User: Fold this.
Amino acid sequence: MQKTVSPARAIEGVITLPGDKSISHRYAMLGAIAEGTTAISNYSTGADCQSTLGAVAALGAGIERADGVIKIHGGELRAAKGDIDAGNSGSTIRMLSGILAAQRFDSRIGGDESLSRRPMQRILTPLREMGASIEAREGKFPPLTIHGRALEAIDYTLPVASAQVKSCILLAGLFARGDTVVREPVRTRDHTEIALKEFGAEIETNARVITLQGGAKLEGREVFVPGDLSSAAFFLAAAMLVPGANLLIHGVGLNPTRSALLDFLAGMGAQIKVVDVQQTSGELVGDLRVRHSKISGGVIEGAMSAALIDEIPALAVLGAASENGLTVRDAAELRVKETDRIATLEKNFRRMGIAIETTADGLHLPGKQQFHAARIDPEGDHRIAMAFSIAALAADGECVIEGAEAADVSFPEFFATLHQIAG
Ligand code: S3P
Assistant:
């Protein structure tokens, strides 16, 4: 499917976004293993989170959908009849593998072509230390064949900053004998820790050290998923770019381990106001008012690179249009996302006539650049499709986004929402 995006003369209105992708995955997985019923409001409509629902349904969890609420009837899982399909979703395969490794049955889990190229060594190492038996294609890629067995708790220092790996170990740790300890080099999103507490697990965090008691009995809950801040990033960028813009984004997740985005944008000169902040199911949620802003530019490096990893495509678009440009370092993880995002950013920026230099772990975009009309090829990557749709709003002519359905992975309503605010 192709989408044509025209230059925007205005950005205005009030929008809401689909539920946070990271939080939705966690509630679905915890709902499936918790006793009783979990009712999830505002569950992500993205294909990735539907993959997680499909996976837990295949493992015996009962799923009901009514009035925008997903009900999961959880408890003991049973073997899936065939392979479990994680689709395009790294979160699904990496986090669910922690649960599968501890079951009394065997599983095989894989996904699409992009997922089949993503590294799994990062979960295999700690899970094997816990006693898991897992085989991977060529030793490191999906599909994974997981022979379920009893696990032992471990004390593990993450070599890569990764919330997915941390979560995988904690989910395995729920079923393990003893206390599981995960030590993080830099703090990553803590939705799993918050959700585990909500569902009744004994878990504590002290200065980047997380300790979870094994053997907890989880209980089903009523939970609410805030809007996805990583999806909001595209609309924050759109409003910052387009002269006269004034946009209200309603009900966005503001968990402090995710909101580095807002701090970075403020440092770039963004006019963003956070209003009406509340707490729901242990997560912060609030409204964001954003206006057209003079964008200065900046540097993303060190711990910031991990904290902003999903938003770098949107920030790169702002960087090219900024006064002083954007430099990204220490972001080698971009190379192993849904696509090699350093390469897909470079290729599509060049198509738009934008100068960009790339390195093994980052990129540099000089500032004050004009986006030129172009055909964009996101190569199936949702965040690349959405980022370049935002660049198109500030281009000198119509842009065509090829394979625009890629956005469905996290945000099926993306183009409708863009149309709503940009006309
Ligand atoms: C996620 C963690 C991040 C992020 C991904 C979602 C999560 O990945 O990029 O989109 O839900 O835990 P890593 O944990 O691999 O850094």
Remarks:
- Residues 22, 91, 162-164, 167, 189, 309-310, 333 surround shikimate-3-phosphate (CB under 6 Å).
- Residues 21-224 form a domain with the UDP-n-acetylglucosamine1-carboxyvinyl-transferase; Chain fold (CATH 3.65.10.10).
